[in-house]
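Exercise 3.2. Students should predict the tertiary structure of the chain below and write it as C-alpha coordinates, then compare their answer with the key that follows.

Predict this chain's 3D structure.
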Amino acid sequence: MVWIPGGVFKMGSGTIPDATPVHSVNLDGFWMDKTTITNAQFAKFVAATHYETVAERKPDAKDFPGVPTEDLVAGSLVFTPPVAPVSLRDVSGWWVYVHGACWNHPSGAGSDLQGHDNFPVVQVAYEDAVAYAKWAGKRLPTEAEFEYAARGGLEQKEFVWGEEMKPAGKHMANTWQGHFPNQNFAEDGFTGLAPVASFPANGFGLHDMSGNVWEWCTDWYRPDYYAHSPAANPQGPESSFDPDEPAAPKRVQRGGSFLCSDIYCGAYRPGVRGKGEVSSAASHLGFRCARSK
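Answer key:
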Protein backbone atom coordinates (compact mmCIF):
# COMPACT_ATOMS: atom_id res chain seq x y z
CA MET A 1 0.00 0.00 0.00
CA VAL A 2 0.97 3.65 -0.41
CA TRP A 3 0.47 6.31 2.25
CA ILE A 4 -1.63 9.18 0.88
CA PRO A 5 -0.98 12.29 2.99
CA GLY A 6 -4.04 14.25 4.06
CA GLY A 7 -4.84 17.58 2.49
CA VAL A 8 -7.35 19.82 0.76
CA PHE A 9 -8.25 19.47 -2.91
CA LYS A 10 -10.89 20.63 -5.35
CA MET A 11 -13.23 17.73 -6.14
CA GLY A 12 -15.46 17.31 -9.15
CA SER A 13 -15.76 18.66 -12.68
CA GLY A 14 -17.32 21.85 -13.92
CA THR A 15 -18.51 20.18 -17.13
CA ILE A 16 -20.11 16.95 -15.86
CA PRO A 17 -23.65 17.50 -14.48
CA ASP A 18 -23.47 14.95 -11.64
CA ALA A 19 -19.95 16.06 -10.67
CA THR A 20 -20.81 19.70 -10.02
CA PRO A 21 -20.22 21.95 -8.31
CA VAL A 22 -16.46 21.72 -7.97
CA HIS A 23 -15.90 22.00 -4.22
CA SER A 24 -13.07 21.93 -1.68
CA VAL A 25 -12.66 18.74 0.34
CA ASN A 26 -10.36 18.20 3.31
CA LEU A 27 -9.23 14.60 3.83
CA ASP A 28 -7.29 12.86 6.56
CA GLY A 29 -4.37 10.75 5.40
CA PHE A 30 -5.02 7.11 4.46
CA TRP A 31 -3.40 4.07 2.88
CA MET A 32 -4.33 2.84 -0.59
CA ASP A 33 -3.33 -0.20 -2.62
CA LYS A 34 -0.79 0.57 -5.33
CA THR A 35 -2.82 -1.38 -7.86
CA THR A 36 -6.23 -2.93 -8.25
CA ILE A 37 -6.67 -6.35 -6.65
CA THR A 38 -5.29 -9.04 -8.95
CA ASN A 39 -6.60 -12.46 -9.86
CA ALA A 40 -3.83 -14.04 -7.78
CA GLN A 41 -4.78 -11.99 -4.71
CA PHE A 42 -8.48 -12.76 -5.07
CA ALA A 43 -7.71 -16.45 -5.56
CA LYS A 44 -5.93 -16.52 -2.18
CA PHE A 45 -9.00 -14.98 -0.58
CA VAL A 46 -11.33 -17.55 -2.14
CA ALA A 47 -9.01 -20.42 -1.17
CA ALA A 48 -8.91 -19.23 2.44
CA THR A 49 -12.62 -18.50 2.84
CA HIS A 50 -14.41 -20.60 0.18
CA TYR A 51 -16.26 -17.41 -0.73
CA GLU A 52 -18.76 -17.58 -3.58
CA THR A 53 -19.17 -14.38 -5.56
CA VAL A 54 -22.53 -12.96 -6.59
CA ALA A 55 -21.91 -13.94 -10.22
CA GLU A 56 -21.46 -17.58 -9.16
CA ARG A 57 -24.84 -17.75 -7.41
CA LYS A 58 -28.08 -18.64 -9.15
CA PRO A 59 -30.30 -15.54 -9.36
CA ASP A 60 -33.23 -15.55 -6.94
CA ALA A 61 -36.59 -15.63 -8.73
CA LYS A 62 -38.07 -13.06 -6.32
CA ASP A 63 -35.48 -10.52 -7.47
CA PHE A 64 -36.38 -11.06 -11.12
CA PRO A 65 -40.18 -11.27 -11.37
CA GLY A 66 -41.40 -12.43 -14.72
CA VAL A 67 -38.10 -13.96 -15.81
CA PRO A 68 -38.50 -17.59 -16.95
CA THR A 69 -36.94 -20.14 -14.61
CA GLU A 70 -34.68 -21.47 -17.36
CA ASP A 71 -33.13 -18.01 -17.69
CA LEU A 72 -32.24 -17.77 -13.99
CA VAL A 73 -28.70 -19.04 -14.46
CA ALA A 74 -25.56 -17.82 -12.71
CA GLY A 75 -23.46 -15.56 -14.89
CA SER A 76 -22.49 -12.00 -15.57
CA LEU A 77 -21.98 -9.32 -18.21
CA VAL A 78 -19.22 -9.78 -20.76
CA PHE A 79 -18.08 -7.14 -23.23
CA THR A 80 -18.76 -8.52 -26.71
CA PRO A 81 -17.77 -6.08 -29.46
CA PRO A 82 -20.15 -5.90 -32.41
CA VAL A 83 -18.86 -6.30 -35.96
CA ALA A 84 -20.29 -2.97 -37.08
CA PRO A 85 -21.20 0.39 -35.50
CA VAL A 86 -24.23 0.37 -33.19
CA SER A 87 -26.19 3.03 -31.35
CA LEU A 88 -24.32 4.25 -28.27
CA ARG A 89 -27.67 4.69 -26.53
CA ASP A 90 -28.25 0.94 -26.23
CA VAL A 91 -25.60 -0.91 -24.20
CA SER A 92 -27.06 -4.26 -25.28
CA GLY A 93 -25.12 -3.65 -28.48
CA TRP A 94 -21.91 -4.64 -26.71
CA TRP A 95 -22.85 -6.19 -23.35
CA VAL A 96 -24.04 -9.81 -23.20
CA TYR A 97 -25.16 -11.74 -20.11
CA VAL A 98 -23.05 -14.90 -20.31
CA HIS A 99 -23.90 -18.02 -18.32
CA GLY A 100 -20.99 -19.10 -16.16
CA ALA A 101 -19.11 -15.80 -16.35
CA CYS A 102 -17.51 -15.04 -12.99
CA TRP A 103 -14.18 -13.94 -11.50
CA ASN A 104 -12.24 -17.08 -12.50
CA HIS A 105 -14.14 -17.57 -15.77
CA PRO A 106 -14.35 -13.90 -16.78
CA SER A 107 -15.63 -14.50 -20.32
CA GLY A 108 -17.82 -17.49 -19.52
CA ALA A 109 -17.54 -21.15 -18.62
CA GLY A 110 -14.95 -21.87 -21.32
CA SER A 111 -12.50 -19.22 -20.12
CA ASP A 112 -9.94 -19.30 -17.33
CA LEU A 113 -7.18 -17.24 -15.71
CA GLN A 114 -4.17 -19.08 -17.10
CA GLY A 115 -1.34 -16.59 -17.52
CA HIS A 116 -3.44 -13.81 -15.97
CA ASP A 117 -2.40 -13.88 -12.30
CA ASN A 118 -1.24 -10.26 -12.51
CA PHE A 119 -4.35 -8.96 -14.25
CA PRO A 120 -7.06 -7.15 -12.28
CA VAL A 121 -9.80 -9.38 -10.94
CA VAL A 122 -13.13 -8.56 -12.61
CA GLN A 123 -16.71 -9.79 -12.43
CA VAL A 124 -16.92 -8.68 -8.79
CA ALA A 125 -20.07 -7.13 -7.35
CA TYR A 126 -19.95 -4.60 -4.53
CA GLU A 127 -20.45 -7.15 -1.75
CA ASP A 128 -17.66 -9.29 -3.20
CA ALA A 129 -15.25 -6.36 -2.99
CA VAL A 130 -16.36 -5.58 0.57
CA ALA A 131 -15.89 -9.22 1.58
CA TYR A 132 -12.34 -9.29 0.24
CA ALA A 133 -11.47 -5.98 1.90
CA LYS A 134 -12.76 -7.21 5.27
CA TRP A 135 -10.74 -10.42 4.96
CA ALA A 136 -7.63 -8.40 4.14
CA GLY A 137 -8.12 -6.09 7.13
CA LYS A 138 -8.88 -3.16 4.87
CA ARG A 139 -11.89 -1.37 3.38
CA LEU A 140 -12.96 0.18 0.10
CA PRO A 141 -12.06 3.83 -0.51
CA THR A 142 -14.60 6.61 -0.36
CA GLU A 143 -15.28 8.46 -3.58
CA ALA A 144 -13.45 11.52 -2.26
CA GLU A 145 -10.42 9.42 -1.31
CA PHE A 146 -10.38 7.85 -4.75
CA GLU A 147 -10.45 11.16 -6.61
CA TYR A 148 -7.88 12.75 -4.31
CA ALA A 149 -5.56 9.75 -4.70
CA ALA A 150 -6.14 9.61 -8.46
CA ARG A 151 -5.14 13.24 -8.91
CA GLY A 152 -1.78 12.47 -7.30
CA GLY A 153 -1.25 15.97 -5.97
CA LEU A 154 -2.30 17.77 -9.17
CA GLU A 155 -5.08 20.35 -8.84
CA GLN A 156 -8.02 20.09 -11.27
CA LYS A 157 -5.98 18.74 -14.17
CA GLU A 158 -7.77 17.06 -17.05
CA PHE A 159 -6.01 13.74 -16.50
CA VAL A 160 -4.32 12.07 -13.55
CA TRP A 161 -0.95 12.80 -15.18
CA GLY A 162 -1.59 16.38 -16.38
CA GLU A 163 -3.33 18.29 -19.16
CA GLU A 164 -2.41 16.25 -22.25
CA MET A 165 -4.00 12.91 -23.13
CA LYS A 166 -0.75 11.66 -24.67
CA PRO A 167 2.22 13.64 -23.36
CA ALA A 168 5.07 13.36 -25.88
CA GLY A 169 2.82 10.98 -27.84
CA LYS A 170 2.82 8.37 -25.05
CA HIS A 171 -0.29 6.57 -23.82
CA MET A 172 -0.59 6.82 -20.04
CA ALA A 173 -3.54 4.49 -19.39
CA ASN A 174 -5.42 1.54 -20.87
CA THR A 175 -8.30 3.15 -22.73
CA TRP A 176 -10.07 2.69 -26.08
CA GLN A 177 -8.62 4.00 -29.33
CA GLY A 178 -10.80 3.78 -32.39
CA HIS A 179 -14.54 3.74 -32.98
CA PHE A 180 -16.31 2.39 -29.90
CA PRO A 181 -17.50 -0.34 -29.54
CA ASN A 182 -16.68 -2.12 -32.79
CA GLN A 183 -13.17 -0.96 -33.62
CA ASN A 184 -10.19 -0.82 -31.25
CA PHE A 185 -6.84 0.15 -32.75
CA ALA A 186 -5.07 -0.85 -29.49
CA GLU A 187 -2.56 1.97 -29.86
CA ASP A 188 -1.87 1.67 -26.12
CA GLY A 189 -0.83 -1.95 -26.60
CA PHE A 190 -4.01 -3.63 -25.32
CA THR A 191 -7.34 -4.60 -26.86
CA GLY A 192 -8.76 -5.63 -23.49
CA LEU A 193 -7.53 -5.72 -19.92
CA ALA A 194 -3.90 -4.98 -19.18
CA PRO A 195 -1.77 -6.44 -16.37
CA VAL A 196 -1.73 -4.13 -13.35
CA ALA A 197 1.00 -1.46 -13.35
CA SER A 198 1.44 -1.61 -17.13
CA PHE A 199 1.46 2.20 -17.19
CA PRO A 200 3.38 4.79 -15.14
CA ALA A 201 2.33 5.56 -11.56
CA ASN A 202 0.82 8.93 -10.70
CA GLY A 203 2.26 11.48 -8.30
CA PHE A 204 1.33 9.39 -5.25
CA GLY A 205 2.86 6.20 -6.66
CA LEU A 206 -0.47 4.63 -7.58
CA HIS A 207 -1.00 2.71 -10.82
CA ASP A 208 -4.10 2.47 -13.00
CA MET A 209 -6.16 5.13 -11.27
CA SER A 210 -7.34 5.89 -14.81
CA GLY A 211 -8.57 3.27 -17.28
CA ASN A 212 -8.21 -0.53 -17.29
CA VAL A 213 -11.09 -1.33 -14.87
CA TRP A 214 -13.79 0.61 -13.08
CA GLU A 215 -13.36 0.47 -9.30
CA TRP A 216 -15.96 0.28 -6.54
CA CYS A 217 -16.15 3.03 -3.91
CA THR A 218 -18.14 2.94 -0.66
CA ASP A 219 -20.42 5.90 -1.42
CA TRP A 220 -24.02 5.51 -2.42
CA TYR A 221 -24.64 7.27 -5.73
CA ARG A 222 -26.76 10.40 -5.99
CA PRO A 223 -26.32 12.90 -8.84
CA ASP A 224 -26.98 15.90 -6.56
CA TYR A 225 -24.69 14.96 -3.66
CA TYR A 226 -21.91 17.45 -4.39
CA ALA A 227 -24.23 20.40 -3.74
CA HIS A 228 -24.34 19.56 -0.02
CA SER A 229 -21.36 17.27 0.53
CA PRO A 230 -19.49 17.83 3.84
CA ALA A 231 -16.22 19.70 3.53
CA ALA A 232 -14.25 17.20 5.62
CA ASN A 233 -13.94 13.46 4.96
CA PRO A 234 -17.25 13.02 3.09
CA GLN A 235 -18.68 9.51 3.28
CA GLY A 236 -21.38 9.86 0.65
CA PRO A 237 -25.17 10.21 1.00
CA GLU A 238 -27.28 8.04 3.29
CA SER A 239 -29.07 6.37 0.40
CA SER A 240 -28.91 5.86 -3.33
CA PHE A 241 -30.96 7.52 -6.03
CA ASP A 242 -30.43 7.40 -9.77
CA PRO A 243 -33.22 9.12 -11.71
CA ASP A 244 -32.49 6.83 -14.67
CA GLU A 245 -33.25 3.74 -12.53
CA PRO A 246 -34.93 4.90 -9.30
CA ALA A 247 -35.46 1.39 -7.91
CA ALA A 248 -31.86 0.23 -8.37
CA PRO A 249 -29.53 0.78 -5.40
CA LYS A 250 -26.21 2.01 -6.78
CA ARG A 251 -22.72 2.69 -5.47
CA VAL A 252 -20.17 5.01 -7.00
CA GLN A 253 -17.57 3.58 -9.36
CA ARG A 254 -14.47 5.49 -10.34
CA GLY A 255 -11.56 5.51 -12.77
CA GLY A 256 -13.12 4.39 -16.03
CA SER A 257 -11.97 1.31 -17.91
CA PHE A 258 -10.37 0.02 -21.09
CA LEU A 259 -13.74 0.65 -22.75
CA CYS A 260 -13.68 4.42 -22.20
CA SER A 261 -12.96 6.52 -25.26
CA ASP A 262 -13.20 10.11 -26.38
CA ILE A 263 -16.59 9.39 -27.99
CA TYR A 264 -18.05 7.27 -25.20
CA CYS A 265 -17.69 7.41 -21.41
CA GLY A 266 -14.53 9.52 -21.07
CA ALA A 267 -14.32 8.51 -17.40
CA TYR A 268 -10.56 8.13 -17.43
CA ARG A 269 -10.68 11.79 -16.35
CA PRO A 270 -10.37 12.08 -12.54
CA GLY A 271 -13.41 14.33 -12.07
CA VAL A 272 -15.87 11.96 -13.79
CA ARG A 273 -18.17 9.72 -11.75
CA GLY A 274 -19.52 6.28 -12.52
CA LYS A 275 -22.27 4.24 -10.89
CA GLY A 276 -23.26 0.61 -10.64
CA GLU A 277 -26.10 -1.46 -9.23
CA VAL A 278 -24.68 -3.17 -6.17
CA SER A 279 -25.27 -6.77 -7.30
CA SER A 280 -23.94 -6.18 -10.80
CA ALA A 281 -20.60 -7.42 -12.08
CA ALA A 282 -18.93 -7.10 -15.46
CA SER A 283 -15.75 -7.88 -17.36
CA HIS A 284 -14.40 -4.34 -16.85
CA LEU A 285 -15.20 -3.91 -13.15
CA GLY A 286 -12.75 -4.44 -10.27
CA PHE A 287 -11.58 -2.70 -7.10
CA ARG A 288 -8.71 -1.78 -4.82
CA CYS A 289 -8.60 -1.34 -1.06
CA ALA A 290 -7.85 1.46 1.34
CA ARG A 291 -7.11 1.62 5.05
CA SER A 292 -7.37 4.38 7.60
CA LYS A 293 -4.32 5.51 9.55
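Discussion points: The first helix runs from residue 39 to 49. The chain has three helices and eleven strands.
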